[in-house]
Amino acid sequence: SQTIHQWPATLVQPVGSPLSLECTVEGTSNPNLYWYRQAAGRGLQLLFYSVGIGQISSEVPQNLSASRPQDRQFILSSKKLLLSDSGFYLCAWSDGEAGELFFGEGSRLTVL
Amino acid sequence: KNQVEQSPQSLIILEGKNCTLQCNYTVTPFSNLRWYKQDTGRGPVSLTIMTFSENTKSNGRYTATLDADTKQSSLHITASQLSDSASYICVVSAKSSYKLIFGSGTRLLVRP
Predict the structure, then answer these.
(1) Distance, in angstroms, between A15 CA and closest chain B CA?
(2) What is the pLDDT along chain A (112 residues), one digit of tens a residue?
(3) Which candidate from A41, A98, A108 shows the least CB-CB separation from B32?
(4) Cα separation of B70 and B32, whole Å?
(5) How far apart (Å, rounded) are the C-alpha atoms in residues A51 and A45?
(6) From residue A71, how far is each of A28, A94, B50 by CA, in Å?
(7) What are phi and psi of A21, to 5 degrees?
(8) A2, A29, A50, B59: which has the fewest Cβ within 10 Å?
(9) Spatial distance between the Cα atoms of B15 and A109, rounded to a whole number of angstroms
(10) What is the C-alpha separation between B112 and A110, in angstroms, rounded?
(11) Is the pLDDT of residue B11 over 80?
């Protein structure tokens, strides 16, 4: 069966520090991978989308970046965090565009 | 503009009671509609996924309906349990698009 792992679960970082959130999927190959951010009381916002290794689509201009160094690995990064980067980050995967979306457990980022 | 609106924003019911959550959407061309359950601090988990031709779909005590003509969906929860306390998110997918349109969710609290 397929599983998705995301870490760290919680992170407290000072403004200006770097960020790295990692997500891996097991039990499937060539999944579509996504990074979402969820602000309190609001819907999920798509940040990045990837259909394959090295292929990243960015949805929202920001100081975040994503990389897909391996087929089932998706990394969300920042060189310098801003206060506004605080939020709940969710990695997800799907099998094709219309396939069901499976989410990781989320990473709570607090920037102080 | 593609949008998904959910109501009510929050709901409190007593254990054992039924409730219905609403979702209206303006996404075109429509592909499918999904309901997710998200426990606090966790990733969303899929409850149902419905295509244009499906009017009703059940998953245990959860029953989703879809009226593609009026662009409305509902999620009915029968005989609520304390573990039903969560946010319920309506998500609509457009054809030929990887982008999902998320509602902001209905926060349900089931009290003993």
Answers:
(1) 23
(2) 889 999 999 999 999 999 999 999 999 989 999 999 998 777 888 999 999 999 999 887 678 999 999 999 999 999 999 999 999 999 999 987 667 889 999 999 999 9
(3) A98
(4) 14
(5) 18
(6) 10, 13, 29
(7) -110, 135
(8) A29
(9) 33
(10) 33
(11) yes
Please indicate whether, in this complex, the C-beta atoms of A49 and B32 are within 8 angstroms of each other: no
Cβ separation A101–B34 shorter than 8 A: yes
Q: What DSSP element (H or E) covers B59?
A: strand B56-59
Residue B63 contacts residue B57 (beta carbons within 8 Å): yes
Nearest-10 Cα torsion for A96, A101, A104, A109: 100
Model pLDDT, residue A74: 97
DSSP calls for B11-32: EEEETT--EEEEEEE--SSEEE
Place of tokens 């259909």: A51
Q: Which member of B31, B44, B98 has the closest CB to residue A32? A: B98
